[in-house]
Write a structure and sequence with these properties.
heterodimer, A: alpha/beta, six-stranded parallel β-sheet, 16 helices, about 5% strand, globular
C-alpha cells in the first residue's frame, strides 16, 4: 500500500508549489489575479487531502474534526465580514497561521526534544509563530476598535520587552539543552507575552507595515517548521512548507519594506518608535481654517474641468465609498473628469483604498499611485480630500517636522482644495496639517458619508 | 545536519528569490489581495498540522496537534475566501468598466 502513496503525495506537493508560484505571479495584473487564486485554491485542497495518505499516520477522526471546525469557522467568518473590516480579517487569519506554526513546533519539540537540530529549528519556529499569533491578535483588536489604536506606551517598555524575550528564549534553550519538556511551558507563555508587548506600542496608522510584517513572520515560522519536519519521518510535507513559507516570508518582507519606505521611515522606527504617541505643540502655522458648506463646494466641483479625489482612512471608517462613487458619477455626467489619488499607506493595510473603491464599483483605470498623479495636481481645479490627513500634510516638506521626508500627495498644488473632515483634530501623527490653513483650502466638516451625501444632494439640485 | 536538511536549505534559498521576483511585479493596486493571497499560501501549515497530528501518540501531542489543525484550517479557508472576495470585486469593475 505505502509503496505508491509516498511518491504520489510528493508529486502532488510539487505540482501544488508550482501552482502557488504561478498564482502569486498572476497577481501582477487584475485581469489574471482571480483565476490564479482559484487555481491555487484547488491545488491547496488536493495537497491537504493527500496529506492523510502518508504512511504511519493515524488519528484520522481528530484530523477530520479539526479540519471541519477550523475550515467552517474560517469560511463563515470570511464570508460574512464587511469589506471595511478586511484589515482585521487579514490580521486574524494570519495570526491563526502563526498559531498553527507555533503548535506544530510545540508537538515537534515534545516528540524530538533529544534531537538538537530538529528541536532547535522547532524552537525558532515556535518563537516566531507565537509572536505572530499574539501580535496579530493585538493588531486585530486595535483595528476592530476593541483596543485603543493609539500607541500604548509606558516607562521602560523596550527594556521590559527585551527582558521578556531573553528570559523566554533562555527557558526554551534550557528545555532543549537539558531535554526537559516542562520548561517549554514558561517558554511559550513568555513568547506570547512578548508578542503582545511588541504590538502594543504600534499605532493604528502604522498598521500597513505591521500587518505585512506579521504576514512575513508567519511565512518564516512555517518554513522553519518545514525544516524541522524535513528532519523527521515524514519529510515530504516539510519541503512543501519550506518552499511555501519562504515564498511568503520573502514576499511579506518586501511588502513591509515598501510600506515603510512610503512613510520614509525605517521598519525599526515603525516598530519601536511609538509614532504618534506624543502630539506636537505650539505649531507656527499662519492663517486659519476656512469652512465651506456643501452647496458651495458642489458648485465649485460642478464647474470644474478636473476633480481629483483623495480618499483616506476617514472614508473607510464612514463607509463612504458608495457615496463617493455616486458623487463621481454625477460629476462625470456633467463633463467633469474625475481621478483618484491613492497614497500607498492610506488606510490600515497595503492597498486598502483600492479595495474599498473597487467594492463601490469604481474602475481601477481611474485610480492613480502617488508617483503617477502628483504632477497632475496643478492641473486640477478641485482636489477633494476625504478623511485623509497625514498623507496630504505639506509639513512633510518642512525640515524639522516629524513627518519630514515622507512622500506625500501634493494636494495643495490644486487650484482649490476641499477637505472633508469630522472635526478640527489632528491626524494620527499628532501633527497640525498646514494644508488646512492654506488660502486655497476650504473645510467641509462632517462624517465622510454624510458630507459626501450632502454634496450629492446639492449636485442633483444644481 | 542531515542531507535532507541541506537540500531543504538549498530549496529555501531559491524560494526566497522566487518570492522576491514574483512579488516585485505586483502593482500597488493589488497589494491587499497580494497580502491576503500570500496569507492563504502559508496556510500550507495545515499540511504540517495534519502530519504531526497523524503521527501524535500521547494525549498532549494530540491536543496540541488538534489546535494546530484547527488554526491551520482557519488560516487556509479564511485566507482563500478573503482573497477571492477581493479579487472578485476587481474582476467585476473590469467587466462593467466602472462607469454606467
Amino acid at each position: 500500500m505505502t509503496v505508491w502513496q509516498g511518491p504520489t503525495v510528493d508529486a502532488v506537493y510539487v505540482v501544488a508549489i508550482l501552482v502557488f508560484i504561478l498564482g502569486l505571479r498572476s497577481m501582477s495584473s487584475p485581469t489574471t489575479a482571480r483565476r490564479g487564486i482559484v487555481l491555487a485554491g484547488v491545488a491547496m485542497l488536493i495537497a491537504v487531502a493527500v496529506s492523510v495518505l502518508l504512511p504511519g499516520e493515524s488519528n484520522f477522526a481528530l484530523i477530520a474534526l479539526g479540519v471541519i471546525i477550523g475550515g467552517l469557522a474560517g469560511w463563515y467568518w470570511a464570508r460574512v465580514v464587511q469589506m471595511t473590516a478586511m484589515p482585521q480579517m487579514v490580521a486574524i487569519f494570519n495570526g491563526m497561521g502563526g498559531g498553527a506554526a507555533g503548535a506544530i513546533a510545540a508537538v515537534e519539540l515534545l516528540v524530538a526534544l533529544g534531537d538538537h537540530i530538529t528541536a532547535g529549528l522547532s524552537l525558532a519556529g515556535a518563537i516566531i509563530g507565537s509572536v505572530s499569533i499574539a501580535g496579530s491578535i493585538i493588531a486585530f483588536l486595535k483595528l476592530q476598535g476593541w483596543l485603543r489604536s493609539k500607541p500604548i506606551v509606558f516607562l521602560g517598555q523596550q527594556p521590559l520587552n527585551l527582558a521578556v524575550l531573553a528570559v523566554g528564549v533562555a527557558f526554551g534553550g534550557y528545555a532543549v539543552y537539558a531535554g526537559l519538556a516542562f520548561w517549554l511551558l514558561p517558554f511559550f507563555v513568555l513568547m506570547v507575552l512578548f508578542g503582545i508587548l511588541f504590538a502594543l506600542p504600534i499605532g493604528g496608522a502604522d498598521m500597513p507595515v505591521v500587518i505585512s510584517l506579521f504576514n512575513a513572520l508567519t511565512g518564516i515560522a512555517v518554513a522553519l517548521d518545514g525544516f524541522a519536519l524535513v528532519n523527521g519521518p515524514l519529510g515530504d510535507a516539510g519541503y512543501a512548507m519550506v518552499v511555501a513559507g519562504t515564498l511568503v516570508g520573502a514576499a511579506g518582507s518586501l511588502l513591509t519594506l515598501l510600506m515603510a519606505k512610503a512613510m520614509n521611515r525605517s521598519v525599526g522606527n515603525v516598530l519601536f518608535g511609538a509614532f504618534g504617541a506624543t502630539e506636537e505643540t505650539g505649531g507656527s502655522i499662519q492663517g486659519s481654517m476656512k469652512p465651506i458648506d456643501a452647496d458651495d463646494a458642489a458648485v465649485e466641483m460642478a464647474y470644474a474641468n478636473e476633480v481629483i479625489i483623495v480618499p483616506g482612512y476617514g472614508m473607510a471608517v464612514a463607509q463612504a465609498q458608495q457615496k463617493v462613487k455616486e458623487l463621481a458619477d454625477l460629476l462625470e455626467s456633467k463633463g467633469v473628469a474625475v481621478k483618484y489619488a491613492i497614497h500607498p499607506v492610506a488606510g490600515r493595510m497595503p492597498g486598502h483604498m483600492n479595495v474599498l473603491l473597487a467594492e463601490a464599483g469604481i474602475s481601477y483605470d481611474k485610480l492613480f499611485d502617488r508617483d503617477e498623479i502628483n504632477s497632475e495636481f496643478p492641473n486640477a481645479d478641485v482636489a477633494l480630500v476625504i478623511g485623509a490627513n497625514d498623507v496630504v500634510n505639506p509639513a512633510a516638506h518642512r525640515q524639522g517636522s516629524a513627518l519630514f521626508g515622507m512622500p506625500i500627495l501634493d494636494v495643495e498644488q490644486a487650484h482649490n482644495v476641499i477637505v472633508i473632515k469630522r472635526g478640527q483634530g489632528k491626524g494620527f501623527a499628532g501633527i497640525e496639517n498646514d494644508l488646512f490653513y492654506k488660502d486655497n483650502t476650504r473645510m467641509l466638516y462632517g462624517d465622510a458619508q454624510v458630507a459626501v451625501g450632502q454634496l450629492v444632494t446639492a449636485l442633483k439640485k444644481s | 545536519m542531515t542531507a535532507d536538511l541541506w537540500t531543504a536549505l538549498f530549496i529555501g534559498i531559491l524560494a526566497a528569490f522566487v518570492g522576491y521576483e514574483v512579488i516585485s511585479r505586483v502593482p500597488v493596486l493589488l497589494h491587499t489581495p497580494l497580502m491576503s493571497g500570500s496569507n492563504f499560501i502559508h496556510g500550507i501549515v495545515l499540511v504540517g498540522g495534519i502530519v504531526v497530528l497523524g503521527l501524535a501518540t500521547t494525549p498532549l501531542e494530540e491536543g496540541v496537534g488538534l489546535v494546530a489543525v484547527i488554526m491551520g484550517a482557519m488560516n487556509v479557508t479564511g485566507g482563500y475566501v478573503v482573497t477571492e472576495r477581493i479579487l472578485a470585486m476587481f474582476d467585476r469593475s473590469k467587466k462593467k468598466g466602472g462607469t454606467p
